[in-house]
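Customer escalation, tier 2.

The customer says the design service returned an amino acid string that "doesn't look like it belongs to this structure." They asked us to rerun it and document both sides in this ticket. The original C-alpha cells are below, unchanged.
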C-alpha cells in the first residue's frame, strides 16, 4: 500500500510511519515531513519523485498534481479509472495521512500580520483530505494523530486491511476537519477585514467538542460543551472541583458577564442566572461580604463571580457557606489553599483573554439560530432627569450600578440598590408591578432611601406608588411609554427623583 504523508502536527508520525513500513507500505512524503522521516531512518519517497515536479513557490505548489489526486480519487471498482491510471503512470494511493497548516495557532500570535496569516491557509492539504474522504471505500484518510495506534492495531490484526466502519469513521472525521478549518478561516478573515460589517447574508459556525458535561439542565439530559469558530478548548482554567454541569456553565456565564459590568472591586452572587447579591466597595472582601449579607438565604448553593484577584480574606468569607462555584480572573495561592479544603466547590480562573468574542450572541430557536449584538452598554448617553427632584451624586452612582444590574436579570426585571449593594431583585414576572413587589419585599426596611431600576418603562404609575410606599428615593428607567407623564407626576407628588435612559434592557 502506498501511503501519502504530509503533516503539520508531527506528533507520533515517525513511529506511525515505521509501523506502516514494517507492514509493507511505501511512504511518500513532502517538505518538512519528508525531512523528519528521512532523518529518523524511515524509508521515504519524496513527492517530486512521484510528480516529476519540484516543490515550488515557497511550498505553495507540491501536491496539486494528477499523479497525486488521480492516485487518490481513482475508483477501484471502475475499470476505466484503473485503465486511465495505468495509461498515465499513476500509482494508486491507499492511505492519506494529512493535517493542516496551523492557521488557528498563527492567528493567536500577538501582533501577527495578515500576510503571515494568509500564508498559513492550507490549500493542498484540504484538497488531498477531501479527495481521500470522497473515495473512502478505497482510501483511508487520517487527520488525527490520536488515530495512529488504532489504525496500526487493526492493520496487524486483519492482515493489512482496514474495516469499512473504520474507513467511514475516518472519512467523517476528515470532512469535519476541513469544514471546521474553512469556517475558522472565514470567521477570522471576516473579523479582520470586515470588523464593522452588518449581519452577512450567510455565516458559518464551527463547533468543536471541548468536554462532556455531567448532564444537562436535568440529570436525564445528556450534554457537552463545544467551542466555536477556532477557539481551542474551554476559555477558562478549572483549578479545583468536580466536573461541570450544563447549569454550572450557564450560571458561570451570567455571573461573569455581570461582574465585568461592575465599576470598581465587585462581587456578584448568582442563582439560576439572576443576581441575588451584588456589591461594589473599596476592597473585594468587603464587596463580597456586603453582597452575601444582602440575601444570605438565596446565596446558599450559589455561583460567585469576583472581578478582581481573590485574596485569602475573601476566600475565608466565601468558605463560610456552601457555594457551587467561584469564578475570578485570578486566585492568590493562599486563597486556593483555603477554598480547596471545600471538596464540593469549583474554582474557575477566567483569563482576561476569555472575554474576547465576535460581540455576537447566538441562540438556537425554531430549528435555526437567532443572532444579535451583545448588550454591552449601560447608558449610551447621560440620562435625563425628568422630575422636580434631582438625584444627588451618591444616588446617581447607585442608579448607574442598578441599571447595569437590571440588564442581567430576566424580564420583567426590577432591582433595588443602596450604597453600592443590591438589596432586592424581582425577576421574570409576567407583570412588572409583580416584579416591583418582589424586589421591595426582598429589600424590606432597607428600601428606604434606596434607588430602584427597571429594565423597561412603567406602563402605569402603580409601580411608582409601591416604590414611594417603601421609601424609594430615586428611580431609573428607560422611559418611552405613552403614560410616562403619569409616572413622572407620581414621582413629583412623592418627592422621588427619576431619570430616563432611553435604553431598554430586556433579557429573555
Amino acid at each position: 500500500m502506498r501511503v501519502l504523508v504530509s503533516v503539520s502536527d508531527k506528533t507520533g508520525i515517525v513511529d506511525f510511519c515505521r509501523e506502516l513500513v514494517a507492514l509493507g507500505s511505501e511512504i511518500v512524503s513532502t517538505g518538512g515531513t519528508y525531512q523528519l522521516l528521512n532523518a529518523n531512518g524511515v524509508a521515504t519517497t519524496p513527492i517530486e519523485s512521484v510528480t516529476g515536479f519540484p516543490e515550488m513557490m515557497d511550498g505553495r505548489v507540491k501536491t496539486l498534481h494528477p499523479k497525486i489526486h488521480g492516485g487518490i480519487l481513482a475508483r477501484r471498482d471502475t475499470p476505466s479509472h484503473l485503465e486511465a491510471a495505468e495509461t498515465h503512470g499513476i500509482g494508486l494511493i491507499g492511505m492519506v495521512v494529512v493535517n493542516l497548516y496551523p492557521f488557528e495557532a498563527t492567528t493567536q500570535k500577538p501582533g501577527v500580520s495578515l500576510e503571515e496569516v494568509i500564508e498559513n491557509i492550507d490549500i493542498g492539504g484540504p484538497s488531498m483530505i477531501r479527495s481521500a474522504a470522497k473515495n473512502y471505500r478505497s482510501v483511508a484518510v487520517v487527520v488525527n494523530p490520536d488515530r495512529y495506534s488504532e489504525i496500526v492495531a487493526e492493520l496487524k490484526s486483519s492482515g493489512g486491511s482496514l474495516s469499512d466502519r473504520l474507513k467511514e469513521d475516518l472519512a467523517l472525521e476528515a470532512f469535519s476537519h476541513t469544514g471546521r478549518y474553512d469556517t475558522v478561516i472565514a470567521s477570522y478573515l471576516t473579523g479582520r477585514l470586515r470588523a464593522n460589517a452588518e449581519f452577512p447574508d450567510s455565516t458559518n459556525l464551527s463547533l468543536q467538542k471541548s468536554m462532556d458535561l455531567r448532564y444537562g439542565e436535568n440529570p436525564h439530559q445528556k450534554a457537552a460543551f463545544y467551542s466555536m469558530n477556532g477557539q481551542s478548548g474551554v476559555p477558562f482554567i478549572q483549578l479545583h472541583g468536580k466536573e461541570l454541569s450544563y447549569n454550572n456553565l450557564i450560571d458561570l456565564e451570567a455571573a461573569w458577564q455581570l461582574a465585568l459590568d461592575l465599576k470598581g472591586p465587585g462581587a456578584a452572587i448568582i442563582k439560576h442566572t439572576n443576581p441575588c447579591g451584588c456589591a461594589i466597595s473599596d476592597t473585594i472582601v468587603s464587596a463580597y461580604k456586603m453582597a452575601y449579607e444582602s440575601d444570605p438565604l438565596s446565596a446558599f448553593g450559589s455561583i460567585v463571580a469576583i472581578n478582581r484577584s481573590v485574596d485569602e480574606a475573601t476566600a475565608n468569607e466565601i468558605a463560610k457557606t456552601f457555594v457551587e462555584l467561584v469564578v475570578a480572573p485570578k486566585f492568590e495561592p493562599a486563597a486556593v489553599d483555603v477554598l480547596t479544603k471545600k471538596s464540593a466547590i469549583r474554582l474557575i480562573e477566567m483569563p482576561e483573554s476569555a472575554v474576547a468574542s465576535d460581540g455576537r450572541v447566538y441562540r438556537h430557536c425554531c430549528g435555526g439560530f437567532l443572532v444579535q449584538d451583545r448588550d454591552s452598554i449601560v447608558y449610551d448617553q447621560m440620562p435625563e432627569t425628568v422630575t422636580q427632584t434631582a438625584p444627588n451624586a451618591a444616588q446617581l452612582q447607585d442608579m448607574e450600578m442598578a441599571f447595569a444590574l437590571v440588564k442581567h436579570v430576566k424580564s420583567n426585571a426590577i432591582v433595588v440598590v443602596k450604597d453600592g449593594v443590591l438589596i432586592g431583585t424581582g425577576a421574570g414576572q409576567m407583570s412588572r408591578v409583580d416584579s416591583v413587589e418582589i424586589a421591595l419585599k426582598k429589600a424590606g426596611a432597607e428600601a428606604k432611601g434606596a434607588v430602584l431600576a427597571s429594565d423597561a418603562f412603567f406602563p402605569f404609575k402603580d409601580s411608582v406608588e409601591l416604590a414611594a410606599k417603601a421609601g424609594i428615593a430615586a428611580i431609573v428607567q428607560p422611559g418611552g411609554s405613552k403614560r410616562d407623564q403619569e409616572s413622572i407626576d407620581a414621582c413629583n407628588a412623592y418627592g422621588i427623583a427619576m431619570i430616563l435612559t432611553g435604553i431598554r434592557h430586556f433579557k429573555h
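Tier 2 assessment: The sequence is consistent with the input. Residues 77 and 474 are 81 Å apart (CA to CA). Residues 164-193 form the longest helix (30 residues). Sent an explanation to the customer and offered a walkthrough call.
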